[in-house]
Specification:
Blueprint: H1 16-22, E1 30-34, E2 37-41, H2 43-59, E3 67-71, H3 76-88, E4 91-95, H4 101-111, E5 115-118, H5 121-127, H6 130-133, E6 139-142, E7 150-151
Parallel strand pairs: 3-4, 3-5, 5-6, 6-7
Antiparallel strand pairs: 1-2
Helix pairs in contact: 2-3
Length: 154
């Protein structure tokens, strides 16, 4: 008789969440600098934030196939948002934060995201006018708190 494999079959990226919950419980699964200081994110907190983000998108009316662009450096929030989108079938459109304005415009017009997530003030200021010029884009959210911008936690 064959023994059962204690690990589940991973077929979708968000299947990893159950593995993190059961096999990889860590207090420092992710870390990012906030105001020059490292802040850690546990596996449990990561899963909670992913689920909260997914629920937030559903409450805003997002459906499978809708798109959200992420323009940010590597950070825990990027991973939370990307996993949260995958969990409900929203397509992530990752864009390098160092791209030129013309590249941003081209990619955003051709990918047609409903929302853009940006890291902070510099990208927000650079891209906020695209909302008026690109009919598919409804709003921009920021990972860092920016005056007069919607924060991603909303």
């Amino acid at each position: 008789m064959m023994a059962k494999n204690p690990y589940m079959t991973i077929t979708r990226t968000f299947d990893l969440l159950e593995l993190y919950r059961t096999q990889y419980k860590m207090e420092d699964s992710f870390a990012g600098k906030v105001n020059g200081k490292w802040e850690k994110l546990s596996s449990a907190e990561y899963i909670r934030q992913v689920n909260d983000f997914s629920c937030g998108l559903l409450s805003l009316g997002f459906s499978p196939g809708d798109k959200i662009a992420i323009i940010s450096n590597n950070r825990p929030e990027w991973n939370v948002a990307d996993m949260g989108m995958a969990q409900i079938g929203v397509v992530s459109v990752p864009i390098y934060p160092t791209s030129s304005f013309d590249d941003f415009l081209y990619i955003l017009r051709h990918s047609a995201p409903r929302v853009i997530l940006v890291s902070g003030k510099i990208l927000y200021e650079k891209l906020k006018h695209l909302v008026q010029d690109t009919p598919d884009i409804e709003r921009i959210y920021t990972f860092n708190k920016v005056t007069d911008a919607q924060h991603w936690s909303e």
